[in-house]
Design brief:
By secondary structure, the chain is of the alpha/beta class. It is built from 20 helices and 26 strands.
Length: 672
């Protein structure tokens, strides 16, 4: 716990100060946020709502609650919104502890006692104790994997007769990630009508097959907390919901400050409630990530992993203690959640979020290095010591790694560093900039190769191996001092009409396709492109990739394989280039960034202003503005150079008259 009493994960600023790094240098596994990041509609939703900031937000959150009611099939009168579910949790505790019409407690007082199965989210106890309730705990057994035993909970409630209390639990539990059956919990609530059961479903939407208690069949004495922070990756926005009996909702509202949910949060909440696909897409992505991370953690020496069902995993160490491991990882820029301050746990436990695959791999590699010197020799292990590995009813001897067994992380496959040039438009100079970067690196002795996943060109080239490929990649290969090969441009489209092209894959034609046919074929084309990239990345130190058109083509984005999808696959940092000679370059750069989802914005390292004429110092005010507006710097200004003498290959250049050479040249036409 920090000096100011804050005892949770996710405080990136404090973590950065502790590590001596910038916040951007922290890879945060201490807060469990959707590894996909925010949904793609977040930024446009926020942008559209900015104009409403001149007005106070709707104090009733009417549009948000109407959408939430429709989503859950309930009346909006059974819902209330807050500045995060933590805000609602504290308001709920105050409401229940005070006498009122909510129906819990005696005639002159509200609930005086809270019962919390532990380990559990820390603020359950904090909220109840601050509201004046006596807090009792029901310790979950480590031998049972910290699974909640509803019979034990029933027995504790029955021992108090009909005395009312507030029962708080997570679905799934935080930090264990284990859920409890909704039907059985509802039956327990119905058997104890004088008790209020608070089900915190903050991470429920990450659980496969999850059944929410929120809805028309929720028992009257059940209140459900619904967080939007985790699933929609907006912890900085602060937004949550509670569903409960109407009388209890009125009591909770009376404990909340007016205008506690701002206009931006309400707009995002409404959009989230209307999005029917994001949660399912997230579950499909998280399940294999969680499984891979669980298995990798369980293979580490002296680590036991609990079978969590959400987007985080609880681990137990033999040695070192979790606080020491946390400090050592933090020096590497990796933050995990030390669980020593959870009731029912101790300094052996830590929790990690499930993040994207490359992030998880970095953590696993660091843990392997940190834990290897701490291995317990076999002769020091006691007969009754817990065996590390996976913990749960499905674990077997083959799942376990005994104390002292050596762990050797497999060496990562050799993979080149990647840099990508994308543009705000076609003919922004991407091909030339890519060739220039290739030439610069080659002259410095770097083993570099070019790559473009898909090109469209009628002015193609045939290699010495009989492979057909785009001419721009031929120029780039020669800039690297290499013989051109089709793997540098694995997919080539040669237009044969306004709506169709000949498709060439790895230098060989596979057929003529109309647009719809090619879109259906694209998964195969992208697989070929990724395989070609992998072969280059294994043979060279650096690969300079080229994009096509713009990464912000909304109508093409869902199946685009040449811009951000390829950058993400390659792990490339992106230079976004704009043609300043055309005019409007800053609008083009800013507009492109505005249309990119957050994950793709993160890939952009900065901007390149291409084909500039004049005094670069005149650009300074605009460069400063772009940094303030988008958070990305202009990294370079490239002067305009006429008559480079390089071959043109696409229709944009043809239409611009690039094939005709300089304007002062005479054009002779000869008929034979």
């Amino acid at each position: 716990m920090s000096a100011d009493g804050f005892s949770h994960g996710g405080d990136v600023r404090r973590l950065a100060l502790e590590a001596g790094l910038s916040p951007d240098g922290i890879l945060d596994f201490s807060a469990s946020i959707n590894p996909l990041g925010p949904p793609p509609w977040l930024r446009p939703t926020l942008s559209a709502a900015v104009s409403n900031l001149v007005h106070y937000p709707d104090p009733a959150c009417a549009d948000f609650l109407l959408a939430a009611g429709a989503r859950h099939g309930v009346s909006p009168d059974t819902l209330w919104a807050g500045n995060g579910t933590s805000d609602l949790l504290f308001a709920l505790a105050r409401a229940c502890a005070a006498p009122g019409e909510h129906g819990f407690g005696g005639p002159d007082n509200g609930l005086t006692r809270a019962l919390i199965p532990v380990p559990a989210y820390l603020d359950y106890a904090t909220a109840c104790s601050r509201a004046g309730m006596a807090v009792e705990t029901l310790p979950l057994r480590e031998a049972d994997g910290f699974r909640l035993d509803l019979q034990a909970l029933e027995a504790r409630l029955a021992a108090r007769g009909q005395e009312p209390c507030c029962v708080l639990l997570g679905r799934p539990n935080n930090p264990t990630g284990l859920d409890v059956d909704a039907t059985a919990l509802a039956a327990l609530a119905l058997a104890h009508p004088r008790c209020l059961f608070v089900a915190d479903e903050a991470f429920g939407s990450f659980v496969d097959g999850f059944t929410s208690l929120a809805g028309p069949h929720r028992p009257d004495n059940v209140a459900v907390l619904l967080s939007l922070t985790k699933m929609y990756a907006v912890p900085g926005l602060r937004l949550g919901l509670i569903q409960a009996d109407e009388a209890l909702i009125r009591a909770v509202r009376s404990q909340c400050a007016p205008w506690s949910v701002n206009a931006l949060a309400q707009a995002v909440g409404k959009a989230a409630m209307e999005d029917q696909d994001w949660e399912e897409r997230t579950r499909r992505a998280v399940a294999p990530l969680r499984r891979e991370m669980r298995d990798a953690l369980a293979a580490l020496p002296g680590v036991a992993v609990y079978p969590g069902q959400a987007n985080y995993l609880l681990c137990r160490l033999e040695r070192p203690k979790a606080p020491q491991l946390r400090e050592r990882l933090l020096r590497r820029g990796l933050a995990v959640r030390d669980c020593a301050n959870f009731a029912g746990l101790d300094a052996r436990f830590f929790r990690v979020a499930v993040r994207r695959g490359e992030d998880n791999a970095r953590l696993i590699a660091a843990l392997a290095e940190e834990l290897a010197p701490e291995r317990i020799a076999p002769e020091r292990a006691t007969a009754d010591s817990a065996t590390p590995g996976r913990i749960g009813p499905d674990s077997t001897c083959s799942d376990r790694i005994g104390p002292g067994r050596a762990f050797h992380a497999p060496p990562p496959p050799r993979r080149a560093r990647a840099l990508m040039v994308q543009g705000t438009t076609s003919n922004a100079g991407k091909s030339v900039l890519t060739a220039a970067l290739c030439r610069i690196l080659a002259r410095r002795g770097v083993r570099v190769a070019p790559f473009k996943a898909q090109n469209m060109s009628l002015n193609s080239f045939v290699t010495a191996w009989g492979e057909e490929m785009g001419r721009a990649q031929v120029v780039q290969a020669r800039a690297c001092g290499l013989a051109p090969r089709a793997r540098m441009n694995p997919v080539l489209l040669k237009p044969c009409s306004d709506t169709g092209s000949q498709v060439i894959v790895m230098g060989r034609p596979v057929g003529q396709m109309r647009v719809a046919q090619y879109v259906a074929y694209k998964p195969q084309a992208f697989a070929a492109a990724k395989a070609a990239y992998d072969s280059l990345a294994g043979d060279f130190d650096v690969v300079v990739l080229e994009g096509a058109g713009s990464p912000a083509e909304i109508n093409l984005k869902s199946h685009d394989m040449v811009n951000m999808a390829m950058a993400e696959y390659a792990g490339a940092r992106v230079l976004l280039a704009g043609d300043i000679d055309r005019g409007g370059v800053f609008a083009a750069l800013a507009g492109t960034m505005e249309l990119l989802p957050e994950r793709e914005r993160d890939l952009v390292a900065g901007y390149v202003l291409n084909r500039f004429r004049g005094d670069p110092s005149l650009l300074d005010p605009a460069l400063d503005f772009m940094l303030r507006l988008t958070g990305k710097p202009v990294l370079g200004v490239v002067p305009n150079i006429d008559d480079l003498g390089l071959p043109e290959e696409d229709s944009v250049s043809f239409k611009a008259g690039a094939l005709y050479g300089r304007k002062d040249r005479d054009l002779d036409i000869v008929l034979v």
